[in-house]
Design brief:
By secondary structure, the protein is α/β, with parallel strands linked by helices. Helix content is 37%, strand content 26%. The chain folds into 2 domains: 100 residues, Rossmann fold; 45 residues, no CATH class. InterPro entries: ATPase_V1-cplx_f_g_su, ATPase_V1-cplx_fsu_euk, ATPase_V1_fsu_sf.
């Protein structure tokens, strides 16, 4: 498979069953430096070893997708969430012992946020100001404290700014 020009590899970080399944499917490869494209994580595997392999997979130009068991991704969540390049893509997958939890998946969380910002960026500015009470700000009143809390979010093409206003009512 190494003779295939222009092809990219999958990398797998997972438990023994996950890695064995992908290796039996033909995913296993060694690069020119004899480094495999998989890491079998066992109970005794140190988090630093997982981090080191993950960073190595991120820097390899022959890897397009990193498949990682979600429970292992939780161990190195800071590295997974810090990765913002399109390749290699990081996909969190379930393992035999740990079912998939969509609320922990970084890609789904980013997709939900991107969907909101995409919608707002595609909306003409004159309509955004009309939507501000629904989409961009929320308003709450505490009747016992007589305090009004207003949360406003400004969205531009490059960034968003969040402001919270506390106003004491007379």
């Amino acid at each position: 498979m190494a003779d295939f020009k222009g092809g990219k590899l999958l990398a797998v970080i997972g438990d023994e069953d996950t890695c064995t399944g992908f290796l039996l499917g033909g995913v296993g490869e060694m690069d020119a430096k004899r480094q495999p494209n998989f890491l079998v994580v066992r109970k005794e595997t140190a988090v630093s070893d997982i981090e080191e392999s993950f960073k190595a997979f991120l820097t390899r130009t022959d890897i397009a997708i990193i498949l990682i068991n979600q429970n292992i991704a939780e161990m190195i969540r800071h590295l997974v969430d810090a990765h913002d390049k399109p390749t290699p893509a990081i996909l969190e997958i379930p393992s035999k012992d740990h079912p998939y939890d969509p609320s922990k998946d970084g890609i789904l969380r980013r997709a939900r946020v991107s969907k909101k910002f995409f919608y707002l960026q595609q909306t003409p500015p004159q309509f955004i100001s009309q939507m501000s009470s629904y989409e961009l700000s929320s308003h709450r009143e505490c009747s016992t404290q007589k305090i009004s809390v207003r949360h406003q979010v400004e969205v531009t093409r490059r960034h968003s700014v969040s402001r919270v206003f506390l106003e004491k009512k007379h």
